Amino acid sequence: MLRDWAAGTREVPARLLYSSRALEDVIYRKELERVAEEGAEVQLTLTRQWPADWQGHRGRVDRDFLAEVAWPSHHRPLIYVCGPTAFVEAVAEGLVEAGHEPDRIKTERFGPTGT
After folding, report:
1. What pTM was estimated for this model as a whole?
2. In this structure, which long-range contacts are made by residues 28-31, counting pairs with CB atoms below 8 Å and at least 24 apart in sequence?
3. What separation in angstroms does the CA of 38 have from each of 10, 13, 24, 31?
4. Which of these, 6, 100, 41, lies nearest to 92 by C-alpha position?
């Protein structure tokens, strides 16, 4: 989705909240850095390991993290949540509890990662 945004007119702002175990596990990290330089907001949270100088969020995507970095519900953003089922359910539930309309939250689930 960010590739499509970056290739287009960018009339709508884009924000990505990305959760990973460690910085080394961030998929397409260089590309994410590039689209961030082009104006997309990319917020990373690391759940298990982080560099000593890490200034970003530490821990899972939770209500506090969503309150800090997600658009307010009164903006009525379209939200896409993708990940393992438990992650998707927790994030979608947190968004609804924060006042986001369920029909503005699209989800995609996949099986557990195994670790």
Report:
1. 0.85
2. 31/2, 31/3
3. 10, 11, 22, 11
4. 100
Summarize pLDDT for 16-39 with one digit per residue, the tens: 999 999 999 999 999 999 999 999
Cα four-point dihedral sign 106, 90, 29, 54: positive
User: Which ranges of the chain have pLDDT less than 70?
Assistant: 112-115
Gap between the Cα atoms of 111 and 70, Å rounded:
25
- Name the one residue in this structure whose structure tokens are 């947190």: 94
Q: What is the pLDDT of residue 33?
A: 93
**Distance (Å, whole) CA 73 – CA 101:** 8
